[in-house]
């Protein structure tokens, strides 16, 4: 009887601690069409996850536009300097050229694939230049694997990501872009 009770307590403890841990690494990206739940991978990209959580929980992603959206590829956002539509510094022509006031991050390339729903850091040609911008893949993009830091995955709400307004031309620049309403930890 005692052995049975110990096993039940052990199983309940595992469930509780696993749920508590996973909630710590889940964020809600609120878009105009609904909520997107994103799981963060702190085990493979700890510095990137820490940066995203810091900026998001400080409210810096709120009202930031999706400045580059290429149909069949990805939606890019996160320029907290020039892409915040509620800021005096908002400049849609410069959106995509800015970042936060924090230093750039060293690359944390990993073996996670760029597939539908992957959340990955944007950067310049310098592998160690990721700062605040990120993108969500609409479709698999294996040519990005091990060249960009994957730090998360959409686990609910991909239908809302798919509704983000698409850009025009090869660069995917968006006129009158959709924006992040809010981005917070669960």
Whole-number total of structural domains: 1
Rough shape? globular
Largest sheet features = 8 strands, antiparallel
Output the CATH topology.
Cyclophilin
Low-confidence stretches: 11-21
Instruction: Please report the first level of CATH classification, the CATH class.
Output: Mainly Beta
What is the CATH superfamily classification? Cyclophilin-like
Beta-strand percentage range: 15-25%
Number of distinct beta strands: 8
Tell me the quaternary state: single chain
Helix content: 10-25%
For the biggest β-sheet, the strand order reads 3-4-6-5-7-2-1-8
Give the second-level CATH assignment, the architecture: Beta Barrel
Our Rg estimate from Cα atoms comes to 18 Å
Beginning-to-end CA distance, first to last residue: 38 Å
Structural class: alpha+beta
H-E string:
HEEHEEEEEHE
Average pLDDT reading: 91
Number of helical runs? Answer: 3
């Amino acid at each position: 009887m005692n052995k049975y009770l110990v096993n039940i307590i052990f199983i309940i403890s595992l469930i509780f601690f696993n749920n508590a841990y996973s909630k710590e690494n889940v964020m809600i990206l609120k878009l105009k069409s609904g909520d997107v739940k994103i799981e963060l991978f702190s085990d493979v990209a700890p510095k990137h996850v820490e940066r995203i959580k810091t900026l998001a929980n400080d409210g810096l992603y709120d009202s930031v536009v999706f400045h580059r959206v290429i149909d069949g590829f990805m939606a890019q956002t996160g320029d907290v300097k020039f892409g915040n539509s509620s800021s005096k510094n908002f400049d849609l022509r410069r959106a995509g050229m800015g970042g936060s006031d924090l230093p750039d991050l060293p690359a944390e390339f990993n073996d996670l694939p760029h597939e539908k729903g992957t959340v990955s850091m944007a950067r310049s040609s310098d592998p160690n230049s990721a700062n605040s911008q990120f993108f969500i893949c609409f479709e698999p993009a294996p040519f990005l694997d091990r060249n960009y830091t994957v730090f998360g995955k959409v686990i609910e709400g991909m239908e809302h990501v798919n509704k983000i307004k698409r850009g025009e031309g090869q660069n995917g620049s968006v006129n009158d872009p959709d924006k992040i309403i809010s981005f917070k930890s669960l």
